[in-house]
């Protein structure tokens, strides 16, 4: 196996050089735009930097002095374009999503981890971001053993998430919203119970979930167990009256109806009913068992509501956390809490970066 880095004026030129040096079966591992300095560093010229790999056993390799000349294109006339037939194998790899074939020449333990990441549902973009440090090591002919390899991957994953200390004591209102069936009411009860039992806070509930059968009764049961008042609101006026009535409490937990997230009208109704402001800390509740595209779609649908973080539920019901990681990466929004069971208040935890990374990597 040979792995090399090339710099050229254009991708077209780079493809030609790679074919000359590594052959028609070369695979593109990474490409990016760089700037080459000219005239003693006073000006910069745009270029591309490409890392490619090939299995050259039995290949008639170009002579070393010719390779050196081909490595970087010199200023001058643009090279003749590469024909469509000549470019096709390399071009397909440049523009295709990252898949297992890109790493088929790597050592077994590297290839195994690459495949497991893909099997975890990690998007091709994040997969590439995670594997890039390994590509850089491969350029130096360094292949770390599996423990060090997992260490590097863990560091890359950690860049996408952060720790969370939870809402602070000054937060008056905590609101949860999201699609149907993600466990909003139970999650709200867990947060409230933790405040009441572990922090000795005076708590109360408001619910706007008047659509679901027995929704009010469910929350009423939790409220009675925690000796907390419950206000049911059908309108914005009801909500404002409830705020006045519960003004002496430390934390007021707000439950909302789970509706079809594709119905834009539901989002508008929620915005009209609850006067979101600086004194209301909101969370979008999502299920970790959802498909990647559904997670992204739901997040986009609720994007104009002022939620600070996600709450991911049902982590105990899935072994595939790649879609969650893709959500965090693409929306630039972090997780506040995770839940992994039905017990109240035990089965809820503040987001811990190292724990989440370990959960994702436990199959690697």
TrEMBL record:
InterPro entries: AAA+_ATPase, FlhF, FlhF__GTPase_dom, P-loop_NTPase, SRP54_GTPase_dom. Belongs to the GTP-binding SRP family. Keywords: Bacterial flagellum biogenesis, Bacterial flagellum protein export, Cell membrane, GTP-binding, Membrane, Nucleotide-binding, Protein transport, Transport. Transmembrane segments: none annotated. It is a peripheral membrane protein. It comes from the Bacteria. It comes from Bacillus gobiensis. Pfam families: SRP54. Residues 171-362 form the SRP54-type proteins GTP-binding domain. One of its GO terms (biological process) is protein transport. GO terms for molecular function: GTP binding; GTPase activity; signal recognition particle binding. Its main location: membrane. It is found in: Cell membrane. One of its GO terms (cellular component) is plasma membrane. Residues 170-339 form the AAA+ ATPase domain. This is Flagellar biosynthesis protein FlhF. Necessary for flagellar biosynthesis. May be involved in translocation of the flagellum. SUPFAM superfamilies: P-loop containing nucleoside triphosphate hydrolases.
